[in-house]
């Protein structure tokens, strides 16, 4: 049986649409279009919800049109419309949901409101042959959690950040060090030539035996370290900038590695037949973090799966893919579907 689904995503600062098709042979992404908003928010040092909402409202129809064109699919050839219904910035989520409702009302096709986190959590199965249960580490600008995916609709959260998300911490670090946004890649580049041991930065919550993490103390410690070396004209020497970036990245890597080791203990106690640790989120692009996790998996007998970066970061193919599972069991929403700023899995 062939099923074709349109997916729409607008929960943060990417307006995205995709067409995904599934048949007996497997799943194919026919198109995946993403309109990023980085330049719109660059001057503000973070995503401004009002600006994001307006940009989503302006772009979402065009984005859907482009996704259908690229896939060479007519709207009438789709079987359902899947849309991120939360969690996220409410103005953006609303733009996507209203667009999807309009399309569903006009075509009579089923409407499926997808949890954005379920989209990320199912992504490893979109590109790899990954069996349930698998362990998922979601590390992005807005999220940080360990999930055990037991099935396509049962995810168990076994820990996560109690304050900032790692991507947010990378972005704030970049601002403190006078580096450009998005901060993650800029900090990684600066750290490459730095000495990670020069500044003593904390590894928060490692004394706790659970999988929870905290990054706000690390940020404060970094601010103090920076102020200890910043010049009277408020500028940093390149060498200081590199050492601070390297110190921060090393602390982040150590925490993620240690907490992932604990999450693996919990997961491996389930005796999965084919153990897998999968990552998603923009921070999963960070090479030192990726190497630390790859290394940890190798010593634990666990396969490490990192989907291609375009599918690790926000996109609509993952929303369409999550929607396909709901379509298969005829689990639909109706036009009363609401946008939810908070929606734990
Ligand atoms: O998943 P994502 O594209 O968007 C959401 O937050 O949903 O993640 C973006 C985050 C940003 O905070 C960015 O600084 C971070 O991922 N990031 C990185 C790297 N590339 C992107 N963090 C560390 N190292 C990187 N190479
Ligand atoms: Zn996301």
TrEMBL record:
Catalytic activity: L-threonylcarbamoyladenylate + adenosine(37) in tRNA = N(6)-L-threonylcarbamoyladenosine(37) in tRNA + AMP + H(+)
Domain Gcp-like: residue ranges: 29-321
Enzyme kind, highest EC tier: transferase
Cofactor: Fe(2+)
Keyword Cytoplasm: yes
Pfam families from the UniProt entry: TsaD
GO biological process: tRNA threonylcarbamoyladenosine modification
SUPFAM superfamilies (UniProt xref): Actin-like ATPase domain
Alphabetical keyword list: Acyltransferase, Cytoplasm, Iron, Metal-binding, Transferase, tRNA processing
Localisation: Cytoplasm
Amino-acid positions noted as binding substrate in the UniProt annotation, renumbered to this chain: 138-142, 171, 184, 188, 286
Binding positions for Fe cation per the UniProt entry: 116, 120, 314
Enzyme Commission numbers on file: 2.3.1.234
Cofactor comment text: Binds 1 Fe(2+) ion per subunit.
GO CC aspect terms: cytoplasm
GO molecular function: iron ion binding; tRNA N(6)-L-threonylcarbamoyladenine synthase activity
Family: Belongs to the KAE1 / TsaD family.
Role noted for this protein: Required for the formation of a threonylcarbamoyl group on adenosine at position 37 (t(6)A37) in tRNAs that read codons beginning with adenine. Is involved in the transfer of the threonylcarbamoyl moiety of threonylcarbamoyl-AMP (TC-AMP) to the N6 group of A37, together with TsaE and TsaB. TsaD likely plays a direct catalytic role in this reaction.
Name listed for the protein in its UniProt record: tRNA N6-adenosine threonylcarbamoyltransferase
